[in-house]
Amino acid sequence: MDINCDLGEGEELQHCARDARIMAYISRCNIACGGHAGNAETMRLSLINARTHQIAAGAHPGYPDRKNFGRISLTMPRQALLASVREQIQALQSLAQEERVTLTHIKLHGALYNDAEADDALAEDLVQMFAQAFPTLCILALANAAVERAARRHGYPVLREGFMDRRYLNDHQLSPRSMPGAVIEDFDHCLTQVLALTAGTPFPSIDNKPLKFSVDSICLHGDNPQAESIARKLQQALQRAGYRRCR
């Protein structure tokens, strides 16, 4: 079972200590690299913590908008956006080399993640840049959406991501947070969806229609105040179900 979490998004080293506690229960971390959050200190410490906990470390670039934490779509010239994303990944990659950590993947953040998954042209441009600039990495992308399709067209490795705490529409896309019931708050329901997504067995859409598809990685939201507790409960529940954490 591969569980990924967005980390390194605090501005102080104490936030990295909290992140490190979450790392004990996950297999993959996506480290903010200066666009929406993060700085050289938090990036370096996050990499060190990932190495200590023996989990995969990847870059988590977003719109260069710290004021809004990368959660608002920006209107930018395409080349300027691509350059910003590339520079964010390179900043983390440089620190990773110093700390003898091999980056494994890229996961877009926030509004850029959503925009790329909804826009074939943007997904195409981003994946083409990734394939050229970062050929040894893979992309962590929403299952059944634009970035996965672009990655497969370019032969770029892709990990299909699923969400434990979000309902899906009937077309397999994530339901917008603005829809009533889009966020699953009951842990038992989250676990049921995790097991279905991992095994490729049916689970209900937001309209209670049966969906069936599988994913390679499950997202755990690190900015949830209860993230450490949720991660621990998830690991314990998965162990009882016969799964083990990927290494």
UniProtKB/TrEMBL annotation:
A GO term for molecular function: 5-oxoprolinase (ATP-hydrolyzing) activity
Residue spans crossing the bilayer: none
Keyword list, A-Z: Hydrolase
This enzyme's EC code(s): 3.5.2.9
Matches recorded under InterPro entries: Glyco_hydro/deAcase_b/a-brl, LamB/YcsF/PxpA-like
Keyword Hydrolase: yes
NCBIfam families per record: PRK05406.1-3, PRK05406.1-5
Official protein name in the record: 5-oxoprolinase subunit PxpA
Species of provenance: Microbulbifer elongatus
